[in-house]
Amino acid sequence: MDPSSIGLYGFALVVLLLAIRVPIAFVLTGVASIGTFLVFATRGGNWMPERALNPTSSMVVNSFFELIHSYDLSMIPLFVALGNIAYHAGITTRIYNSANVWLRGLPGGVGIASVVGCAGFSAISGSSVACASTMGRICVPEMLRLGYDRRLATASVAAGGTLGSLIPPSVLFILYGIFTETSISKLFLAGILPGLLTLAGYVVVITWWAARNPNAAPLDPAPLPAGARRQAAIASWPAVLLFGVIIGGIYGGIFTATEAAAISVVLTALIGLVQRTLGLRQLWVAIRTSLEQTAAIFLIAASAKIFVSFVALTGAAALVAEWVAGMDLSPLVLMLFIVILYLFLGMLLDPVGIIVLTLPFVIPLVEHMHMDLIWFGVIVVKLLEIGLITPPVGLNVFVIGSVAGRSVKVDDIFSGVLRFLLMDIVVLALLVAFPIISTLILNGL
């Protein structure tokens, strides 16, 4: 069997194993290791397993350590820690409270405040699932208490949580940048306008929903105390400061993305300790949680690096790229096929699994068409964002379901999420049709 066939069969096996819910790290490492062994053992047309052991083990170990020792990868634990410390310091709660005070008088105001709060949390954390989990515990009980439609109350936070993938910083942008060797700082900046456009789309959905069915989003009858808006705005200054450090520092060329993350973690901890909203015990809980989440991400990323090395060894990606190039597809038709592929995989797999599984095959096609890898990164992350609320997997939906408890069925959340999914498709179409949305800020640098 030639190496390219081994690579293609290996890819098919990975998809099958992931579809039946075998843990992704074990799948990628296992298939890549066995496939690499077969490539070396059958080289030259003869079966000689004794010559395959050393190069296989060398490839696996070197790929693992090459990724773990990556400087850019250090951003992931820093941004994960930033989000956890900000939550325990009460900064994320103040983001929502401020938005709620200012927007509660609008139709669906508390729902709008929820997605705005999710956007604010996303600006200081890189995980969509963490955003949905954190904001779900804050926002969903409040909307249910006010008599909001259960579908609106839960779906708005499930959809709003996906903003953690697009609004920088983003773990998915970091992984994309590492595997495609593109600038992570540029990816962060490219995600700002698409993230804000998505946020605006969600606000439109909630406003339309509340206007069409006022009973789905009752106004809060409690009057605001004097000066409440001013106090709420002042209380949210830590989040504004952190966002300014991350985006302003990167945009202004003052910090690299990694330096901005490190400075923000220290600032967040100091703010919490000085304001006495964060104790040493809470700080330890935040660090421990960050270590657990980072270990899971690193294990998947390292396994993906091993799989990428296996794919490169077999030449399967180049074979696929050559086959697609022979079809003489236009860039638009190719993008349509890529979008369909990611939407389909989003129904079955988690975002990290999709990105590490597809990039070795998709990026050569994109480069062959001379597409901008920064713009394409935004499209990929937007598609992964959509997958977070796409049935039947929809990780954010199940996260919100666990937060809401037995009072809300997962089917109800999926029913409400459909409206946001339609808006996501509209935003995706705009991003594909008008790449300037993603590159405008970069062009201004």
From TrEMBL:
Subcellular location per the Swiss-Prot or TrEMBL entry: Cell inner membrane
InterPro entries recorded: DctM (IPR010656), TRAP_DctM (IPR004681)
Keyword Plastid included in the entry's annotation: no
Membrane topology: Multi-pass membrane protein
Pfam families (UniProt xref): DctM
Keywords associated with the record: Cell inner membrane, Cell membrane, Membrane, Transmembrane, Transmembrane helix, Transport
TRAP C4-dicarboxylate transport system permease DctM subunit domain: residues covered: 12-435
Transmembrane segments: 6-39, 73-90, 110-131, 152-176, 188-211, 232-251, 295-321, 333-366, 373-400, 420-442
Function according to Swiss-Prot or TrEMBL: Part of the tripartite ATP-independent periplasmic (TRAP) transport system.
Family from the record: Belongs to the TRAP transporter large permease family.
Subunit-level organization: The complex comprises the extracytoplasmic solute receptor protein and the two transmembrane proteins.
Protein name: TRAP transporter large permease protein
